[in-house]
Design a protein that fits this description.
The complex is a heterodimer of chains A (about 140) and B (about 260). Chain A is an all-alpha fold. In chain A, about 75% of the residues lie in helices and about 0% in strands. Chain A is elongated and about 50 Å long. The chains are: A mainly alpha (about 140), B alpha+beta (about 260).
């Protein structure tokens, strides 16, 4: 399988775009209706923001930056890309699942979010590392 | 020769005394048994007596027929037309109305209910049940649980919970049958959720004869009272809801069709 730098960026951007937009839409609607968090909506956003913004920032930065003397159509390292993509998909799915299923849990949603932060923190560290490694390696080629 | 004369003499006085004492004891035992047999207060012997006419309920029994908090303070109510609960031909006794309501409740899936006394009539209370936001009962076994049920993912109910939060809705339906003038809820007695949870199990299993045998007259009426309770979120207690967000008809949607369609 050959993936170009442009293609890899688009795929990763799509994954992270979905991982960002879906929870934002759910949290936005919940905040607007105002009955899920019983006046503690800011705590929900405080949980969500650090879990997505750093990685989204990294994705946007790689889009904005261009590698001098490097073609967008050149192939990228397939193993690194696959690792970055799989980890990104896993993280996005986990994030969406937590936001979408928290209201069904037998504990208040904010408690579920706090508990999930432990797992998400570990995955996010690995994902950000993989993404960073992937983009740096391809920028050096 | 002398010895033969000695053996031919009558029995000694001791043996005679023994016979007299034994006869006296036997008479005493017979007398005791006779006294106990016909004594009304001795239950062991009277337990196997032949059936006597059914005794009328004693005043103590009437006092034990549990009282329902009256006048009521329900979340919603509606009057049930008498034609749905009375016999179509001939007279109707109050107990017939009770049996008719029992039949309808069973058809609606309510397996347990308890009878209570209200002024000049009776109340029939169902078990505390959980229901969906549209008034239909929650699916079994969540229907009879106080734990807020989880809907199927991606169902409409799931979407509602996702956007508006997880709330639990519970109710008890009470049919009140009486020939009292009317009831007003202004100063009605509320029922808390703990009390509501026990209504069906702590009520009487049937109507006592002194209520059930009286005729159902034109002065009688039947009202369905709905006591609604809400759990605003998983970590908050269940509270009485003084004014239901649904009409009583929506609460009774599993029962009304059976009431209206008589076999």
């Amino acid at each position: 399988m050959t993936v170009t730098l442009k293609g890899s960026r688009i795929m990763l951007a799509v994954v992270w775009g979905i991982g960002f937009i879906v929870p934002v839409a759910i949290l936005g609607a919940q905040t607007f209706l105002g009955t899920v968090y019983h006046g503690q909506d800011s705590e929900a956003w405080n949980w969500f923001t650090p879990n997505i913004v750093p990685t989204i920032g990294l994705i946007i930065a790689t889009f904005a930056s261009s590698s001098p003397g490097r073609s967008e159509e050149q192939p990228v390292s397939a193993p690194l890309f696959v690792i970055a993509l799989v980890l990104s998909v896993s993280y996005a799915v986990a994030l969406i699942a937590i936001v979408a299923l928290a209201p069904l849990a037998d504990s208040p949603p904010l408690e579920t979010y706090k508990r999930s932060s432990l797992l998400l923190g570990v995955i996010q560290g690995v994902v950000t590392g993989a993404l960073g490694g992937f983009f740096i390696k391809n920028a050096k080629k | 020769m002398y010895e033969q004369v000695q053996t031919a003499q009558p029995p000694p006085p001791n043996r005679l005394k023994f016979l007299v004492v034994a006869a006296a004891c036997l008479l005493l035992v017979v007398a005791c048994v006779a006294i106990l047999r016909y004594s009304p207060g001795f239950s062991v012997i009277n337990a196997n007596r032949s059936a006597s006419p059914t005794p009328l309920p004693s005043p103590e029994y009437r006092a034990d027929f549990p009282e329902f908090p009256w006048p009521p303070r329900a979340s919603a109510f509606m009057n049930i037309p008498s034609r749905f609960i009375t016999n179509q031909g001939g007279t109707t006794a109050v107990k017939d109305v009770g049996l008719r309501l029992e039949e309808v409740l069973r058809q609606g899936g309510y397996g347990q209910f308890g009878y209570y006394h209200i002024p000049r009539g009776f109340a029939l209370a169902t078990r505390l049940e959980q229901f969906k936001s549209d008034g239909t009962p929650a699916d079994e076994p969540d229907r009879w649980s106080k734990k807020i049920f989880n809907p199927k993912v991606f169902s409409l109910e799931y979407l509602r919970i996702l956007l508006k939060g997880k709330t639990g809705h519970y109710r008890v339906i009470v049919f009140a049958v009486t020939d009292d003038d009317f009831f007003a809820q202004t100063e009605g007695k509320r029922v808390d959720v703990e009390q509501a949870d026990r209504l069906a199990i702590e009520g009487a299993n049937k109507l006592p004869d002194w209520i059930g045998d009286s005729p159902y007259t034109d002065r009688h009426w039947c009202a369905a009272l709905v006591y609604e309770f809400e759990k605003p979120s998983v970590d908050q207690p269940i509270d009485f809801k003084p004014n239901s967000s649904l009409m009583a008809q929506a609460h009774l949607q599993k029962i009304l069709p059976y009431l209206e369609n008589r076999r």
